[in-house]
Amino acid sequence: MDKEKLLGLVAEVARENSQWVENSNPPVLLISASDLLSVSHHLWSHASSYFDQLSCVIGLDNGLEAGTMEVIYTLYSIPFNQSLMLKVVLPRENPEIESVASVWKSANWMEREVFDMYGIKFLNHPDLRRILMPADWDGFPLRKDYKEQETYRNIKLAPEP
Amino acid sequence: MSIVPTISKVQYQYKKDNLNLSEPNKFSVDELHTEEMIINLGPQHPSTHGVLRLEVLMDGEIVKEVVPHLGYLHRCFEKHGESLPFNQVIPFVDRLDYVAAMNCEHAYVLGVEKMMGITGTLPKRVEYIRVLVAELNRIASHFIALGTYGLDMGAFTPMFWLMRDREHILRMLEWASGSRLLYNYMWVGGLFYDLPIGFEEQTLEFVKYLKPKLKELDDLLIFNKIFIERTANVGILDLDLAINAGATGPMLRASGLRYDLRRVDGYSVYPELEFDIPIGKGEMGAVGDCWDRTHVRVVEIHESIKIIEQCVEQLTNDHKRTRDFDPQAFVPKKIRPKAQDLYSRLETPKGELGFFFRADGKSDIPFRCKCRSCSFSNLSLLPEMSRGVLIADLIAIIGSIDVVMGEVDR
To answer: What is the reported pTM?
Structure first.
């Protein structure tokens, strides 16, 4: 399926405009955060796209100046051998987005990892807990303004100079 | 004078609730029904293949729910990836899946080369050497998977036999790269060294040695009646669920889908090589059970041997070693890709290993480097697969997934 048809398919359910992002491989489609769940479900269930595999959920922090975070979903359609990435831009303060775990089960742990590293909240997620870091860890390590806590349970984290 | 040294500073104060606070259980003991109990498996347990902790909610002997707790081997790979230049990340990539480091390097290197736009411009000899060492390492990784799986199932001997044969592979890779497990052999745009003189002949000799040993493995483990009884019809993974939950590699193929990225994407020189993709057929039980997953790995070893033979054929004929061949000739002096987003993926012994990069075009350091790990996704199927099985079968299911915790926790 070419890019125009895919854009038309997305426009069937999206309430806001979506657009292609340049310089990306596989192609990245920027959609609005409120459309994510309906677009995902449509792309997954439609007979002409059938994106049945969610390979990866990528969190990304654009830094304090830009003030935005991104979540990128890497989709792959096994029957049509086609890849697509969906990109959603979120504000840096209190980022929230609908979970797609109801469409792809693989989103469950991947979204937990994004939550763990960036603090992006996934609404209606079946089990949103930290996954790699300890549950009582302070802060979200992959944010650009992250500062390591000095001690964790009386263990010094930074080596003595 | 006391001979016991006095400890000036207390580094760590033991408190009884330390474990509970840092990684609390999902289920609480107070809310259990009469017959239910919580069993904690791991993190230090041989059957969990590393530091995986499982919280198992049991009803008598039946598993009701499994909650994996991860992160005991978290080494901040993505943070390192964001703070180091592209070529300096390769040693860290080795340590993701430390029993198949060549395959991980191959995935990373191909990703960066795609960003630089030099895919397909490298000398064929480099590509063939890469595929050769990657397939050797694939066999070594499957040997670990099969050997430790036999150990989990109570078969002790296959472990020793397979470790013996794996050692031959590791020695050969050491000969080529200088280290046994973590190679740093593939570079962006080339290789560290050319193969040592005599490596091709030694590979053929090894393959000749290995073939009868695989027959022995079949007799000893795979078609052993006890092993079949133990693994057939256990942990059946439905194909729809497998795709939906992100299973890849032998897990997905055992459920009956002929899906291998070496064929689907056809990267490197794989389109020029002949090999089959084995799938689970349910010979001993249902399609997608633990025996199928094991058998797919065994057949994959045979296919890898085919690939190795073809690579050696090419490396000794069309792409022979020459005096002026320099494997580092095409290594870029400065790795500074254009500003772009890129997701590239590759088939490792465990499944699809993907790397996402965002380059900003201004620095040698990626703005974001994300690793999509196959063991992580495969392990997330464990709760689905082990609902309602006996606790002894849970061990069989964990082993058949073939997780390497270094790759799960990154």
So the answer is: 0.89
